[in-house]
């Protein structure tokens, strides 16, 4: 099997381990005496909703509404699917969130709420507090995205600007709440995924203000005023751990990056290649993480330590990119462009980095592939990796080489998948 096929097939093995159509049914509760409302948000929302429909008893009432990213929808029978903006929220997501909150508030103790939560839900389930217009929420989101702040810290800010996140959706519900979560964050903390609409929130308004300051986020006046009022105690905090208002809620993480990395590891093991899982919690600047990985690759090729080729170095997590240029490129393309610079055509080393949701940043690619001859091919096209990296333009680098990985939406999301294949 050639390296390109090995890499891409390993990616599909990782994604397949988090396919909602395969995993949701085993985690569903029994139908209640009353009706069941299904709500949800995230890039996996539509496929999770369809999985519920396929497994739910035909004689049990079922309805609901989920919101997913544009082009991530799919056909459903009982649960409506609305598409909205990501990674920057928009009016469609705001309207969907308002309707979800209204439907949830109508449930009684005899009913059941099933919440389907996956990565991307923070943007998609955006219902800002009354004092923060959607335009201002968009502005602060854009600034957060460019700041280099980790997603968990971004979500602390968003929780404290929302009427539904940070546990507030569940707090508005009288029915039992069963939440099924597909994790896209390091550590798999359900309160951090989609900003935890049904989870207790240990963070505070003061934490949100500190993040704004630490990452030099350009926040509109309405955002700062709301956060400062909350820090001063004039606005209620989000529900905290052990708050009885959430006693009727259960949150279950049903798919994680770790499970997907193990599936990829098994894929390589079956093909006689030693898999080494470097962890599912890799964070930091994508370009700097690539330098660390390149040093490990050099050690393996030069000294066959600490692993002897053929070996596949597999990792997950979510790196960040502090945007300084105006190029096209997500964190996976940024990682690979930096790796290309560091390895500079090293023989028998191949790599893939891609987001398991099928979208690297805001472009149309899941990620890209790097080959030993990539630098030479780029040079022949007068494409300079270092210049592209300085402009945050990894997309254009790999587009010029014809090595973008384009899968379309996968309708799941367990964070980034990276593999470096060292054959000798």
Low-confidence stretches: none
Any guess at the CATH architecture of the largest domain?
A: 3-Layer(aba) Sandwich
Count up the helices: 16
The counted number of beta strands is 12
Q: Can you give the mean pLDDT? A: 96
The quaternary organization reads as single chain
Spatial ordering of strands, largest sheet: 3-2-1-4-5-6
What does the largest sheet look like? 6 strands, parallel
- The radius of gyration computed from the alpha-carbon positions, rounded to a whole number of angstroms, is 22 Å
Short summary of the structure?
With 424 residues, this protein is an alpha/beta fold.
Overview of the structural elements:
The chain is an alpha/beta fold and 424 residues long. It folds into two domains: 168 residues, 3-Layer(aba) Sandwich (Rossmann fold); 165 residues, MOFRL domain (glycerate kinase, domain 1, 3-Layer(aba) Sandwich), CATH 3.40.1480.10. Helices cover 38% and strands 17% of the residues. A six-stranded parallel β-sheet has the order 3-2-1-4-5-6, with helices on both faces. Helix 3 links the parallel strand 1 and strand 2. Helix 7 crosses helix 9 and helix 12 runs parallel beside helix 13.
